[in-house]
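Researcher: Re-running this chain for the archive, since the previous output was lost when a drive failed. Same request as before.
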Amino acid sequence: MLSGLLEAELYAYILVFARMGGALMLLPGFGERVVPERSRLLLALAVTLAITPMIANRLPSIPAGIGPLVITLVSELLVGIFLGAIGRLVFNTLDMAGSFILGQIGLSSATALNPLMADQGATISVMLMLAASVIIMQTDLHILLLRGLIDSYALFDPARPWPLGDYTAAYVRTFSQVFEIALRMTAPFIIATMVLYVGLALIARLMPQLQVFFIALPLQIGLGFIVLIAVIPAIMIAFTDELGQLWRALVQPGVGP
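Model: Regenerated structure tokens:
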């Protein structure tokens, strides 16, 4: 009897660790490339030890055979990866917005090493993503992400089969929302560029001898940086709000974005 109880307890911790480990390997603030994988797994273990007693009544009993056991563990790992991938997709809004912004101000070829992704990225994207990582920790948004992982057990029940179609639809829907958010962040630059080129077109008509193409790019870059300085606070506020709303909508039943 005692051995059966110990096996049940161990099974519960392993099941929770599978979901927490998969999620924390990808979630913003936790799953960055600069954070060693071992540190992420240790954090997942610490979270598992803390929350398993709170959600033990929601976990299924030990399956009878090795096949169902493996299927349940893999399913929980995939749920964690799905949740982490959704969070990472929302975080990459800034990468998408930075690329759009650079295209609007005429510096689309300006790239730099992005330490969060261990790859080359748009310079503005690197700046926005680094700032967002700090803001996530400073505003306790990372606690909301962890809380969401706990709440996810009410929506993603380990005892139920894995609804692949619903998860795919949720990922596609989130991607469309992320694209829309990135465009909204880029809207001031689109408007400023349109106004600039309309003004240059009028000048070209009024002063045909003026070589507009020689002054267009410097003016576009200068105006772009002025607009960037003005709207960076609004971009970061919008990002944190959207991340919190989309995350709540995903992991908490009945909460809209």
